[in-house]
Design a protein that fits this description.
By secondary structure, the chain is mainly α. The protein contains five helices and no strands.
């Protein structure tokens, strides 16, 4: 009863791993970005086809802004594509099912960075996904309305 086992170490590690994510999630809601949006002009709302086209054509473009509709339509398309390939292509092709999420990873990160820019936050907020609970905080931020459209004079 008095021994310190491997399970105790794993539980301690899990608790300590989530503490930075919890702190960052709390800071996310306490510290709101102020001033005008410094990432460019507002992005237009997109329909399903336009959102997929724009996100795949800007698959390495981490600059600019992405509207809520653009991000969420692309997220839905990526999820459905991964689901279909893993359901139907795995028995037929095998390893192809693991390639599709990897192909969609970079466009998804770029769309996420542009969506964060639309809320006047840096793309470094995507690192919250690495903390576990930070993914929930990012989900909330991605659903926020866009920040102001005024261009900031960052270097003055």
């Amino acid at each position: 009863m008095g021994s310190f086992s491997l399970w105790h170490i794993l539980i301690l590690f899990a608790v300590l791993a989530f503490i930075p994510g919890i702190v960052l999630a709390v800071l996310l809601f306490l510290v709101r970005p102020s001033g005008p949006n410094r990432f460019g002009a507002s992005a237009p709302a997109r329909n399903f086809g336009d959102a997929i086209t724009v996100c795949l054509s800007k698959f390495v473009d981490f600059n600019g802004r992405a509207s809520r509709s653009e991000y969420w339509w692309f997220y839905l398309a990526s999820f459905l594509c991964s689901l279909l390939v893993s359901t139907f292509a795995r028995p037929i092709i095998g390893g192809f099912a693991q390639i599709v999420p990897l192909v969609l990873l970079l466009p998804g990160l770029a769309a996420g960075a542009r969506r964060l820019h639309d809320t006047n936050r840096s793309a470094l907020w995507l690192l919250l996904n690495l903390t576990g609970i930070g993914g929930l905080a990012l989900l909330i931020v991605f659903a926020l309305p866009p920040a102001g459209d005024d261009q900031a004079r960052v270097f003055e």
